[in-house]
Amino acid sequence: MPEPFIYDICQAGRRAVSLPACDVPEAPLPEGCVRETLPLPEVAEIDLVRHYTHLSQLNHGIDTGFYPLGSCTMKYNPKVNEVAARLIGFTTLHPLQPEASAQGAMALIYDLQALLAEIAGFAAVTLQPAAGAHGELTGVLIMRKYLYDRGETQRDVILVPDSAHGTNPATTSMSGLKVIEVPSDGRGNVDLEKLKALIAQHGPKLVGLMMTNPNTLGLFDEHVVEVIRLVHEAGGLVYGDGANFNAILGIAKPGALGFDVMHYNLHKTFSTPHGGGGPGSGAVGVAEHLADYLPGPIVVRSGDGGEETGDRGQESEARSQESEGGAFRWYMPPHSIGRVKAFYGNFGVLVRAYTYILMHGAEGLRQVSENAVLNANYLQARLRCTYPIPHGDRTCMHEFVAQGKLEGAPGIITMDIAKRLMDFGMHPPTVYFPLIVSEALMIEPTETESKETLDAFADAMLQIAEEARSQPELLKSAPHHAPVKRLDEVKAAKDLVLCYAPGCG
Ligand SMILES: *Cc1c(COP(=O)(O)O)cnc(C)c1O
Q: Among 55, 442, 471, 499, which has the highest number of CB atoms less than 10 A from its own CB?
């Protein structure tokens, strides 16, 4: 039975709260401060609880089912992260507290900066940016300021491969720079010849290149080192979009490959519930020559003089000796681009990432990537004969891109397949992205799914392909079992209704 909407069960005078008796003299509120009418639903507490619990159950989440949303890395979030993030010492901190009274949180930030620097092979890290795209903007501003400081103010072009994530060209435009697209070659890599031609044409104007690697086709660029060399040779810098880091943890270090800057999506690679624009962290790592440009403040250890590598064995001793006066302090790098966010980043997300990294250790992180890649390749192999997969002959990384173009089912499009999948209790893959693949279905199972779950998904996809031929109407009218049926996508976007209440529904 569908749950009645909360405004439909109102009874005048019913309340969900009982306030304590007033123990101070009552006084009228100032004129104009109180609304005459405020149409709140009048319901009992149990009705209210049921209403919100019911709403929460309409959502598909990683805790309720398989969520292969490509590029988003919807992995399982260990619940121990939540325990750590809720430790009272963390949750009751105020960001304006004196350094000496926030040493524990600063130690965590310091350690996380160092761990991320080590994992990706960079000299320094800031944890301030609030999301991946924010990290990109930070990175590009760093690149630009570095070049400006060297007097190269004429540089205003960024090359962006067509297999990059959509945020890359968006970031470039936001930074006031010009985007020039670099085409892919037949194997899904950056086309080296076309890149050379573009560099020959724009070389002196080049700020650099932004590269998503592994790219949005789920492929590791086979010429990445050569691409980076060519851009460096032209005096440009190379930005790495590290949101797909889930595929190469403990296997390849972007810093060692030659990337100058990279953002990490802590809320993807290192877990944290995300989606719907919730809090994230787009930490940014840089090579030595850019370390002084990081936004700040970052955390350094007293005596470091801005250096933040150090012997981790001696660290705890130093920490206990100096903790009275404050061993860790805030530090603004000398050529910093400035702050990019209030205070120090989304601290709760940092605690989760830190917990996740320590819980796995170096070996565990490598296993994360090995299993993420294995799972994606397993699915690719099971679907390859039924769904076209451009570059399906290559080993994919943590994700791959199939097409919703089924033989013998000319009327069926990717959207129909995605909607039908919801009837199987699974979240659809990312659809119609990347743009360079028509009818794209971008599938990322992540490392945390079992073989049984992967098989259930592959079976569902194969059954849907069969249905597409034998009873296409079933797909066209899907979903049949979801809380809402097929929406009119255009109307939903153009005529968005965000609230339901008397008079505004
Ligand atoms: C998710 C993602 C981004 C953007 O990250 P947000 O945290 O959503 O801003 C950038 N690049 C790639 C490859 C991504 O998958």
A: 442
